[in-house]
Amino acid sequence: MRACEDAPGETWRVNVDAALALMRHLAGEGTHLVYLSSAQVFDGETPRPAEDAPRRPKNAYGRQKLSVETAIEEEQLPAAVIRVNKVLARKPVGLFRVWLDNLARAQPAVAATNLTLAPVAAEAVASAAIRLGGERCLGVWHLSSSDELSYFDAARQMAGICGLPQHLVQGEAVTEAQVPAIFRHRFAALDARKFAQRFDVPIRVARDVLIDQFSGLAAAANA
Q1: Cβ atoms 60, 11 nearer than 8 A
Q2: For the domain that residue 9 is a member of, what is the CATH number?
């Protein structure tokens, strides 16, 4: 997101112009498309927005995603759009990797109290893309946990799941200089009932997503 803010023209050419050029070409060949969008098309001030909620992105990344969504709608491209918030894999990366490494060395892990996430497993996103593409579904679909957590709460829960010292997780509010408000959502979770009902899958609470993603790390450590 920060790269899009710092270089809006360059990133627009990649994220919008090039993406749409490829999608139009594939659509012309008869390909059904699945486009991965983002909860950043919303401003994060409305709890659990549905697929048809007003889109008001606060940052360049969100505006780029919205531009592609709008082109798909206006040009009637044969595509399903998946909006997600935070995708987690079983191999932690980014902040989660830093927290794990610190806690494993009995060092503090600092996590934001004023940043939220609504996690969804990478496997769930892949499965959803296969289903929507395979059944040639159209329109917008949300994937999300039913609730959101602060990064501080997520780090504490991750530590507990992995058998690491939770007391070493320290909460700290990020500043505007560290993470500008245009990147922060007060409410991260999306209304995912449309996909859940269509494909008869549960909407999971955030803690259950974390348990699935990190319990394997605890088992590996114990082994």
Answers
A1: yes
A2: 3.40.50.720
